[in-house]
Write a structure and sequence with these properties.
This protein is of the alpha/beta class.
C-alpha cells in the first residue's frame, strides 16, 4: 500500500512539472489576463514552442498554488509597503494611482482629479467582495466607501462586475489606474487622498527557468511603456 501511494505521488509531481517552454501564470480575474496579452504575444514570437497556461483563482488559492509549484508566477497588486515575503518574493514593476472609474455620463467624468470628499457627487459606489478582489483594491475601495453615505455603497462580486455597473451608468468604482487594464469608454480619474497601488509579480524563491526570467523582463518592459494615468 505504501509503495503504491509513493508511486501515485511521484506520478502527480511529474504531471505538475512544467515542460521546457511552458509558463504557468496565475491571475485573479479577466482584467489581469487581458493585461498579459501584449507580453504573451511577444513571448510567443520569441520562444518557439512557448506554452502559456493561465490559471484564474482567488488570491489565497493562487498563493497556495505558487508555493506548491502549480503555478510559476502570479500577478499581484498591493499597497507600497506590502507584506513580509515568505516562501515567495514580490517583484515591483509599476506604481499606479488610485482611480475613480465611471461612465462618460457620470457627474465626475469631466474632472481631471477628484478628492475623496467629492466622490459622493458621482452617485453610487460599487465595491468588490473582499474574497474575490486583490487586497490592494479592497483597501482603496474601503477608504473610498468611508467617504460615502452607507446606503450609496453597493456590493459587486469582483472588479469586473463593478466595472460592468460603471459601464451601465449604475455606479462608479475605484481601482488602480493602469492604462493596460482600462475598459474602453470608461473614464479613469486619479483620486487625491488615496495611496498608490504597486503592481508586480510574485515568484517562488530560488532558481527560475529561462522562460520565466524572460517573461518577467518582457512584462516589466511592457508596463514601463504604458503611460501612467494623469
Amino acid at each position: 500500500m505504501g509503495a503504491r501511494r509513493s508511486g501515485q505521488v511521484r506520478r502527480l509531481k511529474h504531471r505538475q512539472q512544467p515542460r521546457a517552454h511552458q509558463l504557468r501564470i496565475g491571475v485573479h480575474d479577466g482584467l489581469e489576463a487581458q493585461m498579459l496579452s501584449s507580453s504573451l504575444r511577444r513571448m510567443n514570437e520569441e520562444h518557439e514552442g512557448f506554452d502559456p497556461v493561465v490559471r484564474m483563482a482567488p488570491f489565497g488559492a493562487l498563493r497556495s498554488m505558487l508555493e506548491n509549484g502549480l503555478v510559476d508566477v502570479l500577478l499581484e497588486s498591493r499597497d507600497p509597503h506590502g507584506e513580509p515575503d515568505g516562501a515567495s518574493v514580490f517583484r515591483r514593476m509599476l506604481d499606479c494611482p488610485s482611480a475613480c472609474v465611471c461612465s462618460p455620463e457620470n457627474p465626475l467624468a469631466g474632472r481631471d482629479r477628484v478628492g475623496l470628499d467629492e466622490l459622493a457627487d458621482g452617485g453610487r459606489l460599487a465595491v468588490g467582495d473582499p474574497h474575490h478582489c486583490a487586497a490592494a483594491t479592497v483597501e482603496i475601495q474601503r477608504a473610498a466607501a468611508s467617504h460615502m453615505p452607507p446606503e450609496r455603497v453597493m456590493m459587486a462580486y469582483n472588479i469586473e462586475v463593478a466595472l460592468a455597473l460603471a459601464s451601465a451608468g449604475v455606479a462608479f468604482t475605484v481601482q488602480a489606474g493602469i492604462l493596460a487594464m482600462e475598459v474602453p469608454l470608461l473614464r479613469y480619474i486619479p483620486i487625491e487622498g488615496l495611496p498608490v497601488v504597486t503592481l508586480g509579480v510574485r515568484v517562488r524563491r530560488g532558481r527560475r527557468t529561462a522562460v520565466l526570467d524572460h517573461f518577467l523582463e518582457v512584462l516589466a518592459e511592457q508596463l514601463r511603456r504604458t503611460p501612467e494615468l494623469r
